[in-house]
Structures are given as C-alpha cells and as structure tokens.
From TrEMBL, chain A:
Signal peptide: none annotated. It is found in: Cell inner membrane; Endomembrane system. It comes from the Bacteria. This is Ion-translocating oxidoreductase complex subunit A. Belongs to the NqrDE/RnfAE family. It is an enzyme of class 7 (translocase). Part of a membrane-bound complex that couples electron transfer with translocation of ions across the membrane. Coiled coil: none annotated. HAMAP family: RsxA_RnfA.
TrEMBL record, chain B:
The chain crosses the membrane at residues 95-116, 122-141. This is Fis family transcriptional regulator. It comes from Paramagnetospirillum kuznetsovii. PANTHER family: PROTEIN RSEC. Keywords: Membrane, Transmembrane, Transmembrane helix. It comes from the Bacteria.
Length: 193, 172
C-alpha cells in the first residue's frame, strides 16, 4: 500500500503534469478564469484520464506490444481517449441529466487536451502494471485538477487587483503560473517516479 | 448550463453561478428551458452571440440538456432568462458523478491486485468497482435531485444583450 501512496504523491505533486511536465497548458490558461469552470474541467479530465489509462494499458499489452505495433500507439491512444470521452458523457447523462447540464460542457474539450495523451504515453514509458498505471493516471489527473483550481483562485483574486496595463491579462497569468511552478518545486525530492 | 460569467450570493448567502437559458416550451404554466451552450472559457459575457458556442452544440445535444423550472413564473416561449445554481451544487455534482465511481474503481483494482496479484484480476476488480461506483452515484444523484439541490433557480429575465457583445476571449 505504501508503494501506491508514494506513486500517488510522486505523480500528483512531485512530477505534476502541468507545472513539471508542461502538459495541458492550453486548458491551464484557458479554463482557469473562474474556480467553478476549473473545478468542472478538472473533475471531468480526472475521470477521462483514469478511464482511458485503464483501456490504453489493455490496448498496449494485448495489441501493440505483442504484435509490435508501437508505431500505431499515438493513433490508437487518441481513438481510445475519444471513446472514453464519449463514454463519460453517456455515463454522466445516465447518472443525472441535471448534472449533465452542469458538467457536460467541459467534456468535448478533453479530447484535445494533450495532458490526457501525455499521461497515457508516460504509462507506456514507465512500464507499469495495471494497478500502478491506474493509480498513476488518477494521481496525475488529480494533480492537474489541483493546479487548475489553485491557479483559478489566484486569477480570480488578480482580476480584482490594480495590475499595470502592460501586465494585465495573460502576462500576469504567466508570471503567476511560474511562481506556482516554483512553489511546486518544493515537493522535489519527496518521492521519485 | 451555459456560463454567464458571473456569480453572486443569493438571499441565503450561498454563491450562485449564473447561466443563460431560453424558454423552449411551457406546459401547465411550468417552463422548459434549454441552456445556451458556449465554450467553457469563462472569459466572455456574450454567451448568446458566441459563434464557437453555437457550433459546439447540435439540436439533439441541446434537447438532452432541457430542464424544467419549478412553479408558474409566467414565462413565454422564446424568452431569454438568467438561471442560477449554487456553487456547492457544482462541487457535490462533480464529486458524485466523477469522484465516487473513481474511488470505487481504485478500491476494486487495489483489492484485486492485493488478493490475487495478477493484472487480470486487478482489471476485473477495477471494472467491478466502477460499476458499483456508478450505481451508487446514480442513487446519490437521484437523492440530490429529489432534494432540489441540483435544480437551477430562476433569477431574472434577460432583456438586453450587451451593446459590445463580441467575443473577447483573451487566451490562445
């Protein structure tokens, strides 16, 4: 169990998918103007990354690795991610149509989020077993959500500040993101991947 | 629910997330609304005029998002209104729809791995956990809906579009 805990901390904080691996930067800047949109996007992405990682692990072990089809990995993984997003959409609609109104808006954006594909490719690189892959994907996406919500909270506060005209908008956002990345560097050394 | 890009506290002190919706039908005095879908960038106040938003949804998809407002509010078909939902409802919704199935999935997978130490059993455990988690999420969502936690509230009619209603998204 300790092994999974270390893997979790490593993936979520030490090697954070956004601030350390620089994946998912488009949504990081684009969907973090408000905490509620960041939370909705983060939750939907966490679900999709975990589900797609499970399926991609199977695709890798059953198809790509035995038949030496590694050159099809990116295409196959993108297909799985698109299917996982559709599955998630169907599930949320079935679980609660009202929730689908609130949370469904974020789902189509996930298909083009490079963090989803990035995490799945990292799993192959890490040569993990099934449960390690699932925990790693879950933790990575939780780290992504954490950073999204933190950054959205900071940007909501920044929106109320008197920022110099030259720095207003994305420039102050990038400066804040770099400071957040520095803060996350404090986790380095806690656990290795 | 489309994002009107604002949030205000209501009479109970809860912060409400606001969104635009259009009345598509009135049955027995109760209005059916269709949310205006936009991209979730949250930077734009011109939800009804965003061309990206209009492309993002099709008729079938929008019909699936229709919802009914409680009570006779005297709304007419075609009216544009502002509806609100509490921030805590979004958190509860996300935790129920995504959090619960994922926790159950991980628990099932770890149990499968710990007891049988094979990838096949871990995958089977994870799948079983996911199914159980989705079932629980459905039960919980039904409970939340029955208590009206997830029901959007009517806030006001939206008579005017902003004069500078152009997309002002400032991110790449």
């Amino acid at each position: 169990m300790e092994h999974y805990l270390l893997l979790f901390i490593s993936a979520a904080l030490v090697s954070n998918v956004v601030l350390m691996r620089f994946l998912g930067l488009c949504s990081f800047m684009g969907v973090t103007t408000r905490v509620d949109t960041a939370l909705g996007m983060g939750a939907a992405t966490t679900f999709c990354i975990t589900i797609s990682a499970m399926i991609d692990w199977g695709v890798e072990k059953v198809l790509l690795e035995p038949y030496e089809l590694g050159y099809l990995r990116t295409v196959a993984f993108i297909l799985v991610i698109a299917a996982a997003v559709q599955f998630t959409e169907a599930v949320v609609r079935k679980v609660s149509p009202t929730m689908f109104q609130m949370l469904g808006i974020y789902l189509p954006l996930i298909t083009t989020n490079c963090a989803v594909l990035g995490v799945n490719l990292l799993l192959v690189e890490g040569k993990m077993n099934f449960i390690e892959s699932t925990v790693f994907a879950f933790a990575s996406s939780l780290g992504y959500s954490l950073v999204m919500v933190l950054f959205a909270g900071l940007r909501e506060r920044l929106a109320l500040c008197a920022v110099p005209r030259l720095f207003a908008g994305p420039p102050i956002g990038f400066i804040t993101a770099s400071l957040l990345a520095l803060a996350f560097m404090g986790f380095s050394g806690m656990s290795t991947n | 629910m489309s994002d009107a890009g604002s949030s205000f506290p209501d009479a109970d002190g809860q912060t409400l997330l606001e969104g635009f919706a259009r009345v598509v039908a009135v049955e027995g005095g109760r209005a059916w609304l269709e949310p205006e879908e936009t991209t979730s960038c949250g930077t734009c106040h011109s939800a009804g005029l965003c061309s990206i938003g209009k492309d993002a949804g099709n008729a079938k998809r929008m019909a699936a998002k229709r919802f009914q407002l409680p009570g006779d509010l005297g709304l007419k078909v075609g009216e544009r209104v502002v509806v609100g939902i509490s921030e805590t409802a979004l958190v509860k919704g996300a935790a129920t729809a995504y959090g619960l199935p994922l926790i159950a999935l991980l628990a099932g997978g770890i149990l499968g791995q710990e007891f049988y130490a094979t990838d096949g059993m871990a995958a089977l455990g994870a799948f079983g956990g996911l199914v159980v988690g989705l079932g629980l999420a459905r039960l919980l969502a039904d409970g939340l809906s029955a208590r009206g936690v997830l029901t959007p509230r009517f806030l006001r009619r939206d008579y005017h579009l902003p004069p500078d209603a152009a997309c002002t998204s400032d991110h790449g």
